[in-house]
Amino acid sequence: MLGLLGELAALKVPTPPVAPYWLALVACLLYAGALWRLDVYTPPEVRHWERLARLRGLEGSRGLGDRVGGRLPALRRLREELDIRLLLVIAGSSQTTESWLVGTAAYTLGAAAVLAGLDGIGLLISGQLPVPLWLILVAIAIVAAARYASLRRRAFNRQTRVGDQLADALLGLAILVPGIPAEDALAVLARCQRNPQLAGVLDETQMHKLLGEDARLRSTRQRYLMVGRALRIPLFQELSLIMRGIDTEGLSPREEYPALSRISAENRLAQNRLRAARAKTGAAAAIALLLVPLLIMVGGGIAFAFLGAVNG
Amino acid sequence: MSLSPVITFSLYLAFLALAAALAVSVGGGDILRRPGWVSARLRPLGERERDLAASLGWRFRSWLLVRAAAVLIGFVGALLTGIPLLVGAAPLAMLFIVPYLMSGRAAARRLRRERTLVDWVRTMVSRMRRNQGIDVILRDGGVNPPYGLEWTLAPLADTSLLLDEALVRMAERARIPEAEMLCLALLASRTRRQEDLVLLLEKVVLPVMEAKLTEQVDALEAMTQKRSQAVAMSLIMLGMFLALIRVDAIRHGFASFGGQVLLTVTAIAFALVLVLVSSLYRVGTFTRWDLEAYQRELRGLGSV
């Protein structure tokens, strides 16, 4: 048996040549890259618009990330999710990306300092580390993740709240606009909301901070369009379009604003119902979780009774 | 040269603390919040309590008394069990349990009021269609209010108040966004063409209120179902706890340090699940309006 194995080992099995496969792979990648470069994957309409924009000098220079994101929506979404600058803008924070990162460093280092302090105390008392070092690294990661999640939640909440407040203000806009300009009416309504999130967005100083100094040169319509884009609130863009329709196409504000108000309210209600339907499944699982504290308490009680019996 | 581990750790600690402090100062002192932060967080809580009291049809002072009495009962009950942890935990639990238990009743009552309000608006529109003046209809609503809206509509019957002031008072009493939305519409358009007001109420206000009502019914149904499950589970837990502490060994075990930790873990796990269930059923609300400020703004514009 051993002899047979020795002979098999001595045999030289010819290895298949791998070079052609690598070459084929490289060729495929080059081919795909060339197609991508030639805009084969871009829809013709988009290509035409881009060409027109190039001809008119309207196209800004896009970075590699933007170009890749334009072709891979999943990557673009991921970039947007991790774009701290964008999240800070949406959250209405006055911080810069750098100061937010430094703040995050402060929190993580603070957490590490607390745990290291515990380790120091443990070492003094028992000569052992109560908190393992890897746990400090995990804590750092958790604190950083929690800070990011907090920023994301703030951004999402503000986005939702401003959108909702704008939708609710449309009703008032429908009443006030025939008498006063839409911009002033919206400012009045925003000032009368108990939570002044929309008023904060419409404030001149805040708007200039958000849109840059050339916001002063833009019309109200354009500014609303830009705010909608910056904060990712489509209702601002829809409002801007309606304002344009009223100004240039003679649409009636008495009909357009109430219609937009009703549609936005119905959309919101539909979203709420969808959320409630989704929550039903989650709630069933959450109710089952109520068994956990019950089991902890009963199990603990039985353990105490058992220990009492054992100890006499 | 080797340093002692204690000194090494102290150095690490000092380094980390220094780095954190430096990061805070460079990062704009984000950790040290503004002084108004606490009050800004507490104000919505106070408003929520006022809303809950209004939904129950109680005065805010009565609601506070009930809350205080519940805390006191929790404290006295915990003293009787002789378990130290419960002396702190039971009043705290009562602080949260009472609004949790009452919120179902409050939601049902509020839904009834909202439904009555929608019916009232529908009647108002139909009377306006028959060429009755809006002022007369509103005053009449205050004098002959529909069942359930007596307290809310009472200011409309007070002839010493101007009608727009009465509308502001009505919204303050109602403490529901739908009523505020209605008053918002009425305040500005009451003095304009009645046909426009009818159209606005018919095309925007009523459809939105009706859709919101349907959503509230769905949410209330789901919430009631889950709440009853949670209450049943809480009662089972309470029953089990009372049965367990009748055994001396278990009662002594719960009174020990380990037992206190166990009870704390149980309470935290239970509270977390309840919070999870409640957060799953949060219904989206409409914007709340400061109608007094709105009235001032309208006066400034010369609209009222």
What number is the mean pLDDT of chain B?
A: 81
Beta-strand content estimate of chain B: under 5%
Biggest β-sheet of chain A: count, sense, barrel?
Answer: none
Q: Compute the CA-based radius of gyration of chain A.
A: 31 Å
Structural class call of chain A reads mainly alpha
Describe this structure in words.
The complex is a heterodimer of chains A (312) and B (304). Chain A has 15 helices and no strands. Chain A is 79% helix and 0% strand. Chain B is mostly helical. Chain B is built from twelve helices and no strands. Chain B has helices spanning 5-26, 37-56, 60-81, 84-129, 134-143, 150-157, 163-174, 177-189, 194-244, 248-255, 257-280, 291-301. Chain B starts with a helix and ends with a helix. At the A-B interface, helix 7, helix 8, helix 9, helix 14 and helix 15 of A face helix 1, helix 8, helix 9, helix 10 and helix 11 of B.
Topology:
The complex is a heterodimer of chains A (about 300) and B (about 300).
Chain A: H1 2-10, H2 19-37, H3 44-55, H4 64-71, H5 73-81, H6 84-91, H7 97-126, H8 133-176, H9 182-191, H10 197-202, H11 204-211, H12 220-231, H13 234-248, H14 253-289, H15 291-310
Chain B: H1 5-26, H2 37-56, H3 60-81, H4 84-129, H5 134-143, H6 150-157, H7 163-174, H8 177-189, H9 194-244, H10 248-255, H11 257-280, H12 291-301
Considering the chains and any ligands shown, give keywords for the structure.
heterodimer, A: 312 residues, mainly alpha, B: 304 residues, 81% helix
